Amino acid sequence: MEPLLYILIIGAVAGWLAGVIMKGFGFGLLGNIIVGIIGAFVGGWLVPKLGLPIGSGLGGQIITAVIGAVVFLFVVKLLRK
Length: 81
What we know:
Structural class: mainly alpha
Order of helices and strands: HHH
Strand content: under 5%
Distance between the termini: 40 Å
Helix content: over 70%
Number of helices: 3
């Protein structure tokens, strides 16, 4: 149960931060969690490809998820136009 709660908290924080960074993307708590979780997958794939030394631990996971969530929201914004 703890890993699921951990994922949800990281997703919520990452989704909220990405929404703040991208301005105009507020999805509420559930939406932010979903964006953050998708962002974690995108960031987990993208950050090593770019060779960015983020680090490990909770901070590194949140930063990776935020980077991925911002990229995800950027793509969503492009597709909406």
